[in-house]
Design a protein that fits this description.
- With 600 residues, this protein is of the alpha+beta class.
- Helices cover 34% and strands 22% of the residues.
- The protein contains 20 helices and 24 strands.
- It has an eight-stranded mixed sheet with strand order 5-4-3-6-2-1-7-8. Strands 9-10-13-11-12 form a five-stranded mixed sheet, sandwiched between helices.
- It starts with 8 loop residues before the first helix and ends in a 5-residue tail after the last helix.
Amino acid sequence: MPLIQKLPSLLINQIAAGEVIERPASVVKELLENSLDAGATRIDIDIEAGGKRLIRVRDNGYGIEREQLALALDRHATSKIASLDDLERVGSFGFRGEALPSIASVSNLRLISQAQHASEAWEIDGQNFTIAPARHAQGATVEVRDLFFNVPARRKFLRVDKTEFSHIEQMVKRLALGCADAEIRLSHNQQAIFVIPVGAESQAIRVNAVCGKGLLEQSIYFDESGAGLRLSGWVGLPTFSRSQADMQYFYVNRRMVRDKVVTHAVRQSYQDVLFHGRHPAYVLYLEMDPTLVDVNAHPAKYEVRFRDSQLVHDFIYKTLHKVLASARAGHVNSGLKENAFERRIDLSNGWATPQNNSLNLLNNAVHESLATYQALYSTASSNTGFNHIGQSYPSNPNLNPNLNRDTPPLGYALAQLHGIYILAENAQGLVMIDMHAAHERITYERLKVEHDAAAMLSMPLLLPLTLNVSQREADLTEQYQTTFEEYGFELHRTGVETITVRRVPSLLKEADIDALVRDVLADLAEHGRSQRIENERNELLSTMACHASIRANRKLTLPEMNALLRDMEITERSGQCNHGRPTWIQLNIDQLDKLFMRGQ
């Protein structure tokens, strides 16, 4: 029988390294986080051979005292926590005391440091722990040479230098995106790659460095607080969606994390505006009491656990839902390359605050009645509850209006193209509108408002539907019975693993009730909430709106076209149709000049 024996310290550190150190980028992450925790305001990162030959991170932080250099390379030795209370309110990036000893066990490591207020610097060799005098300004430098030299099995899995450095570059940018108070310089093979500065505009610069200028130009910046939480950042417009989930950055108290609660909340907020199969882009920062989030969930510290995941989920969802609702056509994304910091919104009442009120434009303009516009859809109105708000809008006073800052965001209609598109002129240039897509969104949003204002109608099933479920799902049925009732369902637990459905919402009478109830229960078990019923309802309302909206080849007069534009400017989410397609595009004068090579 094999004997139980204590493993050698080196082997223990190498096992720990297997969890913490995956590739050179992992080393850079750990060392960069240590520098940030040390209060560094400048960090220089030098890489050679993609990090296989050398990783050097130098900072101007607090440094390490001579007497503590050896301890810094010992397992589970840290200055960041000292008790369970500290662990429950961790505010630093590191706290486990595993990074340096793990790195030292799979490389040739050298640590040089001059502590704050110390008169001289010292260095320690990570292999034999010898300490000697050195030359160094205040701060610390960690040199990691020949990574995985003593673990051939790990080293052979590393990619070519270019690939490994690409991972390092992305890692540095992502960490920089979460911390704007340190200048970070990166070089590879003695060649400077980039410098990320500090300063008032540094956060936008960092977003631009990681995501490209496209996100800043096609996003809404917001800052919202409530329930002890604060959420801020850039949320990409639905038209800036991606084919992959490769531009999604979420930070909790400056720490970059991946969390399914967050991902679900964000995805739900885009439910009504994202094209099928596309992924949203965002850079979001959540600030909260450190005691309400557990960062000690994984050695790499990418995963966290929220004490009240329901609260976090709802706060993120409701905030982003309001932000995206504010993206009315013409108001948010004018097509100009403005600073995203200027595109802020006021969420105090759940509405955006446009720069120009479309109901008070051109004081001397001739106002027209919407009777013509309403008459055009009188049949649809009687079938879908389509009703205008009854207000008057400014018309195009003449065919050549004076376009200025008081011009409506979408401007004035000029013509109809092939019975499909409306061409309009605004202060920036030319606007093109898909009239069916635009009217579909307008109708859809009104149907939702009217349906929400009325009581949820339900109908009894001729034959009650009995479902065999798990005991946990039956428990959830009892727990959330009131929630089901609010949506027009009447269902009861009739056995240990049985539930019976007796009434369903009238709108969903043709739906697959069996699958819908099971999906809702699965959501409740996973996230504590579900939008399945609402989504089913919205899908039906969307279909109704599609059939009730303007069809192709329907000729409109200029007043009718202008009325549609004014409606788009005050309708939530009017930048996209119900299926996520754009309803309008802007070509500014500069873009038009380039098309015709003017000034070249």
